[in-house]
Structures are given as C-alpha cells and as structure tokens.
Amino acid sequence: MESNIKNLAVFVSGTGTNFQAIQEAIEKDEINARIVLLISSKPGVKALDTAREHHIDSFVMDEKEFASSGEYVNALSRKLSDYKTDYILLAGYLKMIPVRIIGDYRGRIINIHPALLPKFGGKGMYGLNVHKAVLEAGEEYTGVTIHIVDEHYDHGPIIAQEKLKVRKGETPEELQKRVLKIEHQLYPRVVKELCRGKIRPPRNKAV
Ligand code: GRF
C-alpha cells in the first residue's frame, strides 16, 4: 500500500451498509485509506457491530447525552483530532454536523443521498421517505448523489451522481434496494478519488 494513507471517520445512525462497502473496498486495497473511527448518533445500531467485526474504534455520540451543545462539539472535535482525521464520510447520518466542525473540515466532509439532489433532499428526506416521494412525484429517474457537506441539509457542491430509471409499479422498498446497490459501488469509488486528492471542492465557500 502506498504511503500518504488517509484517515477516515465515518458517521452513521443506522445499518451502515455504505460504511461496510467502503471498509470492504479498503480491505481489498482499492482505497488508500483506513477507517480510523466510526461515530454513531444512536446506540445499538448494526453499524456498531460491523465496526467491532472489523476492529474499528467506534463511539456513540448523542448530543442529548451531553451537558451542553458546546460540550458535545468539543468532544466530537477532540475525537476527530485524536484520530488525525483527514476526511469525514457521512453514511446514513441523520444529525446535522455542527457548524464548527464543518468549518474545521471545510471541503473534507462528504455525504451520500439516495436521490438526485437538489430534488428530494432536505429535512425529513431520509430512508423510505425519499423513495416514496420520488414515486409519488411520478419521476422517470432517480439515483444517487454524493456531495460536499455545508451548513445546510443535503446542499453542498455535488461531486458525483448516478441515475437510475424508475420502474413502473415498483414499491418504495424495491426502489430503495436498487438505489442502495448503486450507492455501494459509487461511494467507494468517490472515496478512492477523494483520498487520491482528485476531488478538489471549492474551499471556504460557506453558502
Ligand atoms: C443510504 O440510502 C444513504 O444514501 C442515506 O442513508 C442510507 C444509509 O444506508 N444517507 P446504510 O446505513 O449505509 O445502509
């Protein structure tokens, strides 16, 4: 493995199949990085088991468990710096990233979204809600978007998108499954490019 290996922190709130797909690509030497840290906003989720199986340090960090939001941000910031984090990958993370962390890691936090942003993004647009909304709107296409995280939900510069044709009569669950399959291929590919320094988002562009 080449030198200049990047340290990744992955943030999750649930199952973590994207986290797993990225870890598996790393284990196959397809990405010059290691996941040093998993942060979950919820206890008891499957992603935490996956982290354990792969010997990845993990922490549950729920803002509500801290005395103040300042303490929460300090604790999160300390963790990221203790693990010498280069990039933060959001993979099904349902909380807002604190503004200070976005500033400290400007252009180095990315998110995956199961639709073609800017459509079907924003508050409440997660999980099956996204696919239900796509079907209800009668969209011909949906897909996957990977973007740089800024201070707004599902909003920063888009760095990759892949389209998928919606099938007649398919259920939200079926659509979710097909979209997720694309996510598991696209996210590792984008992370690979990111770690090679091939994705250079506009810096200091707080919107
Ligand atoms: C994915 O659909 C992702 O696009 C969205 O949340 C879901 C997470 O799935 N942000 P998983 O936890 O990676 O299985």
Helix/sheet category: alpha/beta
Main beta sheet strand tally, sense and closure: 7 strands, mixed
- The tally of helices reads 6
The shape, in one word, is globular
Task: Give unreliable regions as ranges.
Answer: none
Order of helices and strands: EHEHEHEHEHEEH
Beta strands, count: 7
Describe the protein's architecture and organization:
The protein has helices at residues 17-27, 46-53, 69-82, 99-104, 128-136, 172-195, and strands at residues 6-12, 33-40, 58-60, 87-90, 109-113, 141-148, 158-165. The protein has 207 residues and is of the alpha/beta class. The chain has a 7-stranded mixed sheet with strand order 3-2-1-4-5-6-7, covered by helices on one side. Helix 1 (17-27) runs parallel beside helix 6 (172-195). It is globular. It starts with 5 loop residues before the first strand and ends in a 12-residue tail after the last helix. It binds 5-O-phosphono-beta-D-ribofuranosylamine (GRF). Residues 12, 14-19, 91-92, 112-114, 180, 183 line the site of 5-O-phosphono-beta-D-ribofuranosylamine.
Keywords:
207 residues; binds 5-O-phosphono-beta-D-ribofuranosylamine; alpha/beta; 7-stranded mixed sheet
Quick structural gist:
The protein has 207 residues and is of the alpha/beta class. It has 6 helices and 7 strands; from the N terminus they run E-H-E-H-E-H-E-H-E-H-E-E-H.
Question: Layout of helices and strands, plus pairs?
Answer:
Layout: E1 6-12, H1 17-27, E2 33-40, H2 46-53, E3 58-60, H3 69-82, E4 87-90, H4 99-104, E5 109-113, H5 128-136, E6 141-148, E7 158-165, H6 172-195
Bound molecules: 5-O-phosphono-beta-D-ribofuranosylamine.
5-O-phosphono-beta-D-ribofuranosylamine binds next to helix 1, strand 5 and helix 6.
